[in-house]
Amino acid sequence: MSKLLDNVCSELQRLPGIGRRTALRLAMHILKMEPEVVDSLSKSISSFRNDIQYCHSCNNLSDSTLCPICSDTSRDHSTICVVEQVQDLMSIENTGQYRGMYHVLGGVISPMQGIGPSDLKIDLLADKLLTGTVKEVIIAISTSVEGETTLFYLLNRLKAFPDVKISTIARGIGFGDELEYVDELTITHALMNRREVK
Description:
- With 198 residues, this protein is α/β, with parallel strands linked by helices.
- The chain contains seven helices and six strands; from the N terminus they run αααβββαβαβαβα.
- The chain folds into two domains: 49 residues, RecR Domain 1 (Helicase, Ruva Protein, domain 3, Orthogonal Bundle); 99 residues, Dna Topoisomerase Vi A Subunit, Chain: A, domain 2, CATH 3.40.1360.10.
- Helix 1 packs across helix 2.
- The N and C termini lie far apart (66 Å).
């Protein structure tokens, strides 16, 4: 194999979910692209990596110090949805059902990976709540063990703000899941989050 091809494949394999075969397929596709398209692709990746900023208010990705969501005056600034990563924010935004603000933690507490509360943007969230303008915090993080640990930590930390309503997104059995294959923790959440049928 060509050393140049091998180098490109090795670099592409650094991306999550890209194995050797996929990297080879992508490299061969890049080889077939027009040189100016490849240049544009590499410049946009380089520009993204070097110029992207984090919003100083919510920790979302932004081209400037304030992201478009935080600077949008038509949104409900009294409600904050707490998410793990920017991808989670994007998933919620894509539903078109939420018009409040966000706070991106930047991960979850994971002692196995050496991630503690101080590694997350929890203090930034607390600073926002100190302003007194926030009425509700919606915690929308994963139901993994790490997510549950983070949820427990956040709930304890947010007790310092008794005037702020704290809620979590509904957790439970997904549409189409068969009960016999669902784990006990998920069933417990489903029972706790049950609602009356009218």
